[in-house]
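JOB MANIFEST
job_type = single_chain_structure
chain_count = 1
residues = 516
[input]
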Amino acid sequence: MKYRQFLIVMICMVIINSLAYLAPPILIQIWNNDSIGFTSERVICLFVVLLLALIIEIIFTAIREKFAKGFNIKNCVMMLNSMFHLKYDEINEKGPMNLIERIAISVNSFYAYYTGDAIKIWSSLIIITSITVMVFLMNPYIAIILVIIVPINYFGYRLLNKELMKRSKNMQESTSSGWQEILSIVNQTDYLKQLPDYERLFEQFDSSLKKIYGSMAEVNIYAQSSSTLLKSMNSIVNIMVMVFLVMDYMKLNQNPMNLVIYTIILPLFFNQVNQLTSSNLNKRDMVNSKRFVEELKQHRELDGHIDIESIDTVDLQIDELMIKDRVLSKNINGSYKKGDIIWIKGSSGAGKSTLLKLIPKFREAKGVKLNKESIINITNKSIRSNVEYLSQNVPIIKGTLRDNLFLGKERLLEIENDLIKDPILETIFKNINLDTVILEGGTNLSGGEKQKIAIVRALYNHSDVLILDEITSNIDKESANDILNRITDDSSNRITFIITHDDLSDRYYNTVLNLY
């Protein structure tokens, strides 16, 4: 269900629900003024109306939450897609966990406002207007007081909301950053378990926890104290109005049913005023979330306009290889075609990985050409459809072995049958099968097994360019040789770049690129 359709349905439900809540005082007033008065049948009718209001509220909740599932998924996918298209350095600087935390907060903010507060505003306006008219017909002076209360609350909360928007943005950034700092350590299970105790760790957590809960406390103190002030003012006015009405009743000996009506509608009025203003108050989180979505769009990676079907040549003409303002290497030149296996050599810090990350367009690279066309002009999708980049940080997810072998790829039965027979995976299939669950980070796999899964996954993608960045660094020599042999045996239809901290035998490459 689209949001506009959902909103129309919810407004209709709100009108019905509002009428159900307003029906008791209206009925009491009508019955109070006719000749029949209250009867047992009318009391039963009043009970049925109240019961109907409850049923409508339950239906309202069910419809809202049914819609919310799709609404939340759509927003989450939209923001994750924006995150995936962020600039490479932007993701690294903000941190994936920080971004995920902000996305989760934003999804919840959109849900809370659009499926709750935005609709409550309509309901409150209907009830407030109806009660004000009803009171005006009974006592114009009290109606004037109620009319004055609404703008005082509205503008009071508006000023509060303006300040809270600033503080809430800081809170979201602080909590996301703090949890990112904690999770960066908590994710290191091997490191955690080798520690004799965790006292020093908790000392390190102290600043992050203070950042998280300190920012939350600051916002809550300001928000709750300010809103309490306004709510207390409403409560005081409500009590004083009731005292005035009781005194007036005692002096003039009015119909007691008028007091009954006031005891129903005045608390309902002030409750709706509080709900109206608090719903507008919650809007601040939604506005901050909108700003976050805009930030994601502003830092989207640049894209080209030319699509390519394949990559036949790679040309490098880079005067200076830089990260930020730091020069790593100079005068990098080379032209490569399919069948070439290039060993990238250079000292630590020379920018070997940085260089190869330019080919899949992780960063903007003016000195890289694919098929003699500047990489800047080529679409990211067509580049990454033809380039496979593998680092020593092998992506292993929590899921089955099948899930990991087909990570981000189409699952085909023909390829699955080939994978089962693949020599590189032979030792893995001795102990597990495709349905075996792999734990997060591949903790129930050896380093060599994880690297083998990654290389087979890459080879079966049949990319035109294969980049291997230290993929044999954490495995034994025999496993490394198996992988390198497989790469060279199947290298005629692609361009292969290899970075390794060990010396590479000349049977595994046919050209060298030195970085200085």
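[summary]
The CA atoms of residues 8 and 227 lie 31 Å apart.
The mean pLDDT is 84.
exit_status = 0
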